[in-house]
Amino acid sequence: MRHGERVHIVGSAAVAPLALGSLVLLREGLGTLLGFPGDVVGYMVATGMLVGVGVSPWVLRGEGHPVIRRALCVLPGASLLVMAAFPVVPVFATLAMVAGLCVPTLLALTRGGGGRGMGYAGIAGAVGAVLVAAVWQDQPRLGLAVAGVFAVFAGVLSGPVPDSRRAFREVRWMLPAYAAVGWSLGAVVLPANRLWLFRFELFGADRMYFLLGAVAAGCALAFLLGRLVDEVPTLLAVAAGGMLLVATAPWAAGVAVGAGVTLGASMAALSRLDRLAEGRGAALTATAALLGGLAAYGAEPLLRMFAGSGSVLALSTIPSALLIVWSVYLTPAAKTSGPALALWRLSDPGRAIDRLDLRAEAGERLAFYGRGAVTLLGLLSGEVKADGGRFLSRGVDLTRAGAARRAELRVCHRVPAVPGADRRTVAERLADLTVTEPWRTRAVLEVFPALEARRTDPVCELDETGMLLLGLAEALLIRPRILLADARGCDPDLAPVFDGLARGGAVVVLADPPVPLTVALDAHAHLLRRGRPADELPHSTEEELTASLDRGRP
Asked: How far apart are CA 103 and CA 108, in angstroms?
């Protein structure tokens, strides 16, 4: 990713936490200045955010509204500046809701698959908001002005639009986890502040210093957990544990530690989810996280009518646990019994594949020729919806699972890689697959010198050969159960790579590979006619396979 593009991404990711955090953390001083309770400030912002949930998908539909999108990136900072200059109720109430309206779009922009840089930028925005609140707690107008200047600057540098098309089928299993992240973040900040105030009698800037310590600890913990833990439910469980620690800690530093654990685990989970989503359904995933946070923010004052802040925070772990269980339920186990690949009467809508039956164990190599060969790859990857039959792997029925779910379970991996609008460099995209073992990225690039030479190029600018090599490099890192390769024009010299993946336990499925590649892999060749195998050659020579293909051609 070029430096300028990285700066743009940093800008769009930092605006929302900086503007929103400054308003929420300065709400008490602002409420006193304007003559109403500080919580009313939060309710104004929340109202705008709810309206923004409906606006966000429309703005993110594509390149059709660039002016509106740019305006939404700059409006939060401009609103803070105007509120600081004219601290009267009508102006403040209107612009607080305007700032909140922009937040869903800004959060969706950060779901664009830009790698870990977006997460770092969001953290920087949150840290900036806490610093503003700590330094200017007694001068909220000046704090708003400072936050507004930085938010305007960051908004001007707003980044590219992610793929925000409605991809509910592909990201639906992640939505409860996104909501759990939002709930954890929304449920811990205000109760922690109240506990510091009422349990430990910490006022003004003293509370902000403890919160700053919690955010700093959360950043370090997010960095560590992101490299040690891959399972999102585990990270969410750690976040819930941090909430319990905040609720029960007998000293002020303990509350900060608990808040840091919750923030760190939540940010690590969010980063992991964003890498899995790869920008798909940006508005949906951002909305799920936002609604989770708003639900926690709204539930806290209601529950506080019946219990103290500590008890409310302890009770808040129950919805978090339910969301975790829901996300686990939607994500089936990756390993159970049965063959690695099992098809029963599988068909696609166009009948390029018609009631195909097939079984393959780990390590088998299959080569398909004919009109339905590429369609079969789409059926197995989830890009083509099956019109009948079933697809199972290790006993798990994946017929209705989307492409993202199959990829997340490491069941299927498609080669060549699909670039989309991915502006990450080749090295950054591979590094995001091996955050716990960066040395593997270097080792894989050494296998493909041509790809190593383009390690700093954006993925979306690679040619067909580059995308093929990138897909194989990803497969070496992921070690999928089923490798799906559109091998038309594939260099037979890549046979050792396919062979190594098969020896590692993958079922290798090739569509229309060159005859020398099929022979070199000793692959089981299938000639498809009218969606079904018309001829099979388990162990063929080049002459036999060529003759069979010639007979099968019209």
From this structure: 9
